[in-house]
Amino acid sequence: MPRPKCFRNIGFLPHVTYFKPAGIRMGELDEVILQHDELEAIRLKDHLGISQEEAAKQMNVSQPTFHRLILSAHEKMADAVVNGKALRIEGGNVMVDNAQIPPCGWRQVCTAGWKGKSVSQKDSALPGEQGGAMKIAITSVDGTLEGMVDERFGRSRKLIIYDLETKEHTVTDNAINMGAAQGAGIQSAQNVVNAGAKAVVSGHLGPNAFRVLQAAGVDVYVVSNMTIAQVIQAYEQGKLAKLAGPDVNGHW
Question: The whole model's pTM is what?
Answer without folding.
Answer: 0.52
